[in-house]
Design a protein that fits this description.
Blueprint: H1 2-22, H2 31-57, E1 67-68, E2 73-74, H3 77-108, H4 116-144, H5 148-165, H6 177-185, E3 198-200, E4 207-209, H7 211-234, H8 241-262, H9 272-288, H10 290-297, H11 301-325
Antiparallel strand pairs: 1-2, 3-4
Helix pairs in contact: 2-3, 2-8, 3-7, 3-8, 3-9, 3-11, 4-7, 4-8, 5-9, 9-11
Length: about 325
Amino acid sequence: MLLWSSFIALILVFLALDLGVFHRKDHVVGIKESLRWTAIWASLALCFSVFVYFAYDNHWFELGTVVDAVDGRVNTGASATEKYLTGYLVEQSLSVDNLFVIAMIFGSFAVPAIYRHRVLFWGIIGALVMRGAMIGIGAQLIASFHWVMYVFGGFLILTSLKMLFTHSAPSDPSENIVVRLAKRFLPVTDHYHGHQFVAIHEQRGTRMLTPLAIALLMVETTDLIFAVDSIPAIFAITADPFIVFTSNIFAILGLRSLFFALSGMLDRFTYLRYSLAAILFVVGGKMFCEGTLRSWAGDHANLYLLLLVFALLGGGVGASFLIRTRPSTKSL
Protein backbone atom coordinates (compact mmCIF):
# COMPACT_ATOMS: atom_id res chain seq x y z
CA MET A 1 0.00 0.00 0.00
CA LEU A 2 2.87 2.37 0.83
CA LEU A 3 4.40 1.79 -2.60
CA TRP A 4 1.17 2.55 -4.48
CA SER A 5 0.27 5.58 -2.38
CA SER A 6 3.82 6.95 -2.75
CA PHE A 7 3.75 6.57 -6.54
CA ILE A 8 0.33 8.19 -6.85
CA ALA A 9 1.49 11.02 -4.57
CA LEU A 10 4.55 11.49 -6.78
CA ILE A 11 2.39 11.75 -9.90
CA LEU A 12 0.07 14.22 -8.18
CA VAL A 13 3.09 16.35 -7.25
CA PHE A 14 4.21 16.33 -10.89
CA LEU A 15 0.74 17.36 -12.04
CA ALA A 16 0.45 20.06 -9.36
CA LEU A 17 3.78 21.55 -10.44
CA ASP A 18 2.69 21.31 -14.08
CA LEU A 19 -0.61 23.18 -13.73
CA GLY A 20 0.05 25.20 -10.59
CA VAL A 21 3.53 26.48 -11.41
CA PHE A 22 4.66 25.98 -15.00
CA HIS A 23 1.27 26.39 -16.68
CA ARG A 24 -0.51 28.54 -14.11
CA LYS A 25 -1.41 31.10 -16.74
CA ASP A 26 -3.32 30.02 -19.86
CA HIS A 27 -1.21 30.33 -22.99
CA VAL A 28 -0.77 28.71 -26.38
CA VAL A 29 1.75 25.88 -26.10
CA GLY A 30 4.28 26.25 -28.91
CA ILE A 31 6.41 23.62 -30.65
CA LYS A 32 9.59 24.38 -28.69
CA GLU A 33 7.82 24.27 -25.33
CA SER A 34 5.99 21.06 -26.19
CA LEU A 35 9.20 19.37 -27.34
CA ARG A 36 10.92 20.45 -24.13
CA TRP A 37 8.11 19.00 -22.01
CA THR A 38 8.04 15.82 -24.11
CA ALA A 39 11.74 15.37 -23.33
CA ILE A 40 11.11 16.07 -19.62
CA TRP A 41 8.34 13.49 -19.31
CA ALA A 42 10.36 10.92 -21.28
CA SER A 43 13.36 11.57 -19.02
CA LEU A 44 11.23 11.07 -15.91
CA ALA A 45 9.95 7.78 -17.34
CA LEU A 46 13.51 6.62 -18.00
CA CYS A 47 14.66 7.72 -14.54
CA PHE A 48 11.83 5.71 -13.02
CA SER A 49 13.12 2.64 -14.86
CA VAL A 50 16.26 2.90 -12.68
CA PHE A 51 14.04 2.67 -9.60
CA VAL A 52 12.25 -0.32 -11.15
CA TYR A 53 15.57 -2.11 -11.65
CA PHE A 54 16.83 -1.68 -8.09
CA ALA A 55 13.40 -2.17 -6.50
CA TYR A 56 12.87 -5.54 -8.15
CA ASP A 57 16.51 -6.59 -7.83
CA ASN A 58 16.56 -5.87 -4.09
CA HIS A 59 12.89 -6.77 -3.44
CA TRP A 60 11.96 -3.35 -2.10
CA PHE A 61 8.31 -3.22 -1.03
CA GLU A 62 8.23 -6.98 -1.76
CA LEU A 63 8.56 -6.34 -5.50
CA GLY A 64 10.03 -9.22 -7.51
CA THR A 65 8.72 -11.87 -5.12
CA VAL A 66 5.59 -12.96 -6.99
CA VAL A 67 5.42 -15.06 -10.15
CA ASP A 68 4.41 -13.09 -13.24
CA ALA A 69 1.35 -14.82 -14.71
CA VAL A 70 2.43 -14.03 -18.28
CA ASP A 71 5.75 -15.90 -18.38
CA GLY A 72 5.51 -17.88 -15.13
CA ARG A 73 8.70 -16.36 -13.73
CA VAL A 74 9.61 -14.06 -10.88
CA ASN A 75 10.72 -10.68 -12.21
CA THR A 76 14.35 -9.77 -11.62
CA GLY A 77 15.63 -6.21 -11.86
CA ALA A 78 16.66 -6.69 -15.49
CA SER A 79 13.47 -8.44 -16.63
CA ALA A 80 11.24 -5.96 -14.78
CA THR A 81 13.05 -3.03 -16.42
CA GLU A 82 12.70 -4.63 -19.87
CA LYS A 83 8.98 -5.15 -19.31
CA TYR A 84 8.51 -1.62 -17.98
CA LEU A 85 10.28 0.02 -20.94
CA THR A 86 8.52 -2.24 -23.46
CA GLY A 87 5.15 -1.48 -21.89
CA TYR A 88 5.91 2.22 -21.85
CA LEU A 89 6.84 2.26 -25.55
CA VAL A 90 3.83 0.13 -26.55
CA GLU A 91 1.43 2.37 -24.62
CA GLN A 92 3.07 5.53 -25.97
CA SER A 93 2.87 4.17 -29.52
CA LEU A 94 -0.78 3.18 -29.28
CA SER A 95 -1.61 6.54 -27.68
CA VAL A 96 -0.44 8.30 -30.84
CA ASP A 97 -3.61 7.12 -32.57
CA ASN A 98 -5.54 8.86 -29.81
CA LEU A 99 -3.95 12.19 -30.78
CA PHE A 100 -5.73 12.21 -34.13
CA VAL A 101 -9.12 11.94 -32.44
CA ILE A 102 -8.24 14.56 -29.82
CA ALA A 103 -7.22 16.96 -32.58
CA MET A 104 -10.58 16.35 -34.28
CA ILE A 105 -12.43 16.96 -31.00
CA PHE A 106 -10.68 20.29 -30.48
CA GLY A 107 -11.42 21.29 -34.06
CA SER A 108 -15.06 20.22 -33.92
CA PHE A 109 -15.75 22.15 -30.72
CA ALA A 110 -13.53 25.06 -31.79
CA VAL A 111 -11.62 24.85 -28.51
CA PRO A 112 -9.35 27.93 -28.32
CA ALA A 113 -5.69 26.92 -28.45
CA ILE A 114 -5.03 28.80 -25.22
CA TYR A 115 -7.30 26.41 -23.24
CA ARG A 116 -6.32 23.08 -24.81
CA HIS A 117 -3.58 22.34 -22.30
CA ARG A 118 -6.09 22.70 -19.43
CA VAL A 119 -8.51 20.25 -21.08
CA LEU A 120 -5.78 17.67 -21.58
CA PHE A 121 -4.52 18.19 -18.01
CA TRP A 122 -7.88 17.36 -16.44
CA GLY A 123 -8.35 14.61 -19.00
CA ILE A 124 -5.26 12.93 -17.56
CA ILE A 125 -6.74 13.02 -14.05
CA GLY A 126 -9.75 11.07 -15.29
CA ALA A 127 -7.50 8.71 -17.25
CA LEU A 128 -5.53 7.89 -14.09
CA VAL A 129 -8.67 6.72 -12.34
CA MET A 130 -10.19 4.82 -15.28
CA ARG A 131 -6.99 3.04 -16.31
CA GLY A 132 -6.12 2.21 -12.73
CA ALA A 133 -9.46 0.44 -12.35
CA MET A 134 -9.11 -1.38 -15.68
CA ILE A 135 -5.56 -2.51 -14.87
CA GLY A 136 -6.62 -3.80 -11.47
CA ILE A 137 -9.47 -5.81 -12.98
CA GLY A 138 -7.33 -7.11 -15.86
CA ALA A 139 -4.47 -8.21 -13.59
CA GLN A 140 -6.89 -10.06 -11.32
CA LEU A 141 -8.54 -11.81 -14.26
CA ILE A 142 -5.21 -12.99 -15.71
CA ALA A 143 -3.99 -14.16 -12.30
CA SER A 144 -7.19 -16.16 -11.77
CA PHE A 145 -7.96 -17.30 -15.33
CA HIS A 146 -4.96 -17.70 -17.63
CA TRP A 147 -7.20 -18.28 -20.64
CA VAL A 148 -8.10 -14.58 -20.50
CA MET A 149 -4.68 -14.03 -22.09
CA TYR A 150 -5.91 -15.70 -25.28
CA VAL A 151 -9.08 -13.59 -25.23
CA PHE A 152 -6.97 -10.43 -25.01
CA GLY A 153 -4.65 -11.71 -27.73
CA GLY A 154 -7.51 -12.50 -30.11
CA PHE A 155 -9.05 -9.10 -29.43
CA LEU A 156 -5.78 -7.32 -30.26
CA ILE A 157 -5.32 -9.28 -33.49
CA LEU A 158 -8.88 -8.52 -34.60
CA THR A 159 -8.35 -4.86 -33.73
CA SER A 160 -5.14 -4.77 -35.79
CA LEU A 161 -6.89 -6.29 -38.80
CA LYS A 162 -9.75 -3.82 -38.46
CA MET A 163 -7.28 -0.94 -38.29
CA LEU A 164 -5.41 -2.30 -41.31
CA PHE A 165 -8.34 -2.94 -43.64
CA THR A 166 -10.98 -0.47 -42.42
CA HIS A 167 -10.53 3.11 -43.55
CA SER A 168 -13.83 4.64 -42.46
CA ALA A 169 -13.69 8.35 -41.72
CA PRO A 170 -14.00 9.25 -38.03
CA SER A 171 -17.44 10.51 -37.04
CA ASP A 172 -18.17 14.07 -35.99
CA PRO A 173 -17.50 14.28 -32.21
CA SER A 174 -20.43 16.66 -31.77
CA GLU A 175 -22.77 13.87 -32.94
CA ASN A 176 -21.38 11.40 -30.39
CA ILE A 177 -24.05 9.80 -28.20
CA VAL A 178 -22.25 10.94 -25.04
CA VAL A 179 -22.37 14.55 -26.23
CA ARG A 180 -26.02 14.29 -27.28
CA LEU A 181 -27.01 12.83 -23.90
CA ALA A 182 -25.05 15.51 -22.04
CA LYS A 183 -26.73 18.29 -23.98
CA ARG A 184 -30.14 16.68 -23.55
CA PHE A 185 -30.08 16.15 -19.79
CA LEU A 186 -27.62 18.83 -18.63
CA PRO A 187 -27.69 22.61 -19.16
CA VAL A 188 -24.94 23.60 -21.60
CA THR A 189 -23.98 27.11 -22.65
CA ASP A 190 -23.38 28.06 -26.27
CA HIS A 191 -20.29 30.14 -25.57
CA TYR A 192 -16.94 29.68 -23.86
CA HIS A 193 -16.40 31.37 -20.51
CA GLY A 194 -12.62 31.55 -20.36
CA HIS A 195 -11.09 28.33 -19.06
CA GLN A 196 -14.11 27.54 -16.89
CA PHE A 197 -15.87 24.20 -17.24
CA VAL A 198 -18.93 25.46 -15.36
CA ALA A 199 -20.43 28.96 -15.70
CA ILE A 200 -23.28 30.85 -14.03
CA HIS A 201 -26.16 31.85 -16.29
CA GLU A 202 -26.39 35.65 -16.18
CA GLN A 203 -30.20 35.83 -16.08
CA ARG A 204 -31.30 32.64 -14.33
CA GLY A 205 -28.32 32.36 -11.97
CA THR A 206 -28.05 28.58 -12.54
CA ARG A 207 -24.86 26.62 -13.17
CA MET A 208 -24.30 25.41 -16.73
CA LEU A 209 -21.63 23.37 -18.44
CA THR A 210 -19.52 25.22 -20.99
CA PRO A 211 -18.42 23.80 -24.36
CA LEU A 212 -15.01 23.28 -22.73
CA ALA A 213 -16.62 20.78 -20.34
CA ILE A 214 -18.19 18.92 -23.27
CA ALA A 215 -14.81 18.77 -25.00
CA LEU A 216 -13.31 17.36 -21.78
CA LEU A 217 -16.09 14.78 -21.63
CA MET A 218 -15.26 13.70 -25.18
CA VAL A 219 -11.53 13.47 -24.40
CA GLU A 220 -12.30 11.25 -21.40
CA THR A 221 -14.62 9.07 -23.48
CA THR A 222 -12.00 8.77 -26.21
CA ASP A 223 -9.32 7.72 -23.73
CA LEU A 224 -11.64 5.06 -22.31
CA ILE A 225 -12.26 3.65 -25.81
CA PHE A 226 -8.56 3.57 -26.67
CA ALA A 227 -7.71 2.08 -23.28
CA VAL A 228 -9.77 -0.96 -24.25
CA ASP A 229 -7.11 -1.61 -26.93
CA SER A 230 -3.99 -0.49 -25.10
CA ILE A 231 -4.57 -2.08 -21.69
CA PRO A 232 -4.78 -5.66 -23.08
CA ALA A 233 -1.65 -4.93 -25.13
CA ILE A 234 0.54 -4.42 -22.09
CA PHE A 235 -0.81 -7.60 -20.49
CA ALA A 236 0.94 -9.45 -23.31
CA ILE A 237 4.18 -8.21 -21.76
CA THR A 238 3.51 -8.58 -18.04
CA ALA A 239 0.72 -9.12 -15.56
CA ASP A 240 2.62 -7.39 -12.77
CA PRO A 241 0.17 -4.63 -11.71
CA PHE A 242 2.89 -2.21 -10.63
CA ILE A 243 4.78 -2.41 -13.95
CA VAL A 244 1.55 -2.22 -15.94
CA PHE A 245 0.26 0.79 -14.03
CA THR A 246 3.48 2.82 -13.84
CA SER A 247 4.41 2.36 -17.50
CA ASN A 248 0.85 3.25 -18.49
CA ILE A 249 0.78 6.40 -16.36
CA PHE A 250 4.12 7.71 -17.61
CA ALA A 251 2.97 7.13 -21.20
CA ILE A 252 -0.21 9.14 -20.51
CA LEU A 253 1.75 11.95 -18.84
CA GLY A 254 3.79 12.44 -22.00
CA LEU A 255 0.72 12.34 -24.22
CA ARG A 256 -0.25 16.01 -23.67
CA SER A 257 3.10 17.49 -24.63
CA LEU A 258 3.36 15.03 -27.52
CA PHE A 259 0.00 16.29 -28.80
CA PHE A 260 1.21 19.89 -28.99
CA ALA A 261 4.49 18.78 -30.57
CA LEU A 262 2.73 16.79 -33.30
CA SER A 263 -0.63 18.57 -33.66
CA GLY A 264 0.53 20.50 -36.70
CA MET A 265 1.98 17.40 -38.38
CA LEU A 266 -0.59 14.68 -37.65
CA ASP A 267 -1.87 14.66 -41.22
CA ARG A 268 1.62 13.80 -42.46
CA PHE A 269 1.77 10.42 -40.72
CA THR A 270 0.05 8.57 -43.55
CA TYR A 271 1.63 5.19 -42.82
CA LEU A 272 1.59 5.34 -39.03
CA ARG A 273 -1.71 3.42 -38.83
CA TYR A 274 0.01 0.45 -40.51
CA SER A 275 2.77 0.52 -37.88
CA LEU A 276 0.22 0.64 -35.07
CA ALA A 277 -1.73 -2.24 -36.64
CA ALA A 278 1.49 -4.27 -36.90
CA ILE A 279 2.33 -3.54 -33.24
CA LEU A 280 -1.11 -4.70 -32.11
CA PHE A 281 -0.80 -7.85 -34.25
CA VAL A 282 2.66 -8.68 -32.87
CA VAL A 283 1.63 -8.06 -29.27
CA GLY A 284 -1.57 -10.08 -29.71
CA GLY A 285 0.37 -12.92 -31.33
CA LYS A 286 2.79 -12.95 -28.41
CA MET A 287 -0.09 -13.84 -26.09
CA PHE A 288 -0.75 -17.00 -28.09
CA CYS A 289 2.84 -18.21 -28.39
CA GLU A 290 4.43 -16.97 -25.16
CA GLY A 291 5.96 -20.39 -24.38
CA THR A 292 7.44 -20.91 -27.86
CA LEU A 293 8.76 -17.37 -27.98
CA ARG A 294 10.31 -17.75 -24.53
CA SER A 295 12.09 -20.99 -25.50
CA TRP A 296 13.43 -19.37 -28.67
CA ALA A 297 14.40 -15.92 -27.36
CA GLY A 298 15.29 -16.85 -23.78
CA ASP A 299 15.12 -14.41 -20.92
CA HIS A 300 15.34 -11.36 -23.18
CA ALA A 301 12.15 -11.94 -25.18
CA ASN A 302 10.74 -8.62 -24.02
CA LEU A 303 13.93 -6.83 -25.06
CA TYR A 304 13.50 -8.16 -28.60
CA LEU A 305 9.85 -7.12 -28.51
CA LEU A 306 10.91 -3.64 -27.38
CA LEU A 307 13.33 -3.33 -30.31
CA LEU A 308 10.71 -4.64 -32.75
CA VAL A 309 8.07 -2.16 -31.54
CA PHE A 310 10.59 0.66 -31.82
CA ALA A 311 11.51 -0.44 -35.37
CA LEU A 312 7.87 -0.69 -36.47
CA LEU A 313 7.03 2.71 -35.05
CA GLY A 314 10.11 4.31 -36.56
CA GLY A 315 9.40 2.62 -39.89
CA GLY A 316 5.88 4.05 -40.06
CA VAL A 317 7.05 7.57 -39.22
CA GLY A 318 9.99 7.35 -41.59
CA ALA A 319 7.89 6.02 -44.47
CA SER A 320 5.33 8.79 -43.95
CA PHE A 321 7.96 11.48 -44.37
CA LEU A 322 10.10 9.82 -47.06
CA ILE A 323 7.25 8.82 -49.38
CA ARG A 324 5.52 12.16 -48.88
CA THR A 325 8.61 14.20 -49.66
CA ARG A 326 9.98 11.99 -52.44
CA PRO A 327 9.99 13.93 -55.73
CA SER A 328 7.66 12.49 -58.32
CA THR A 329 9.26 11.08 -61.46
CA LYS A 330 7.79 12.03 -64.78
CA SER A 331 8.13 9.81 -67.83
CA LEU A 332 10.02 11.35 -70.69
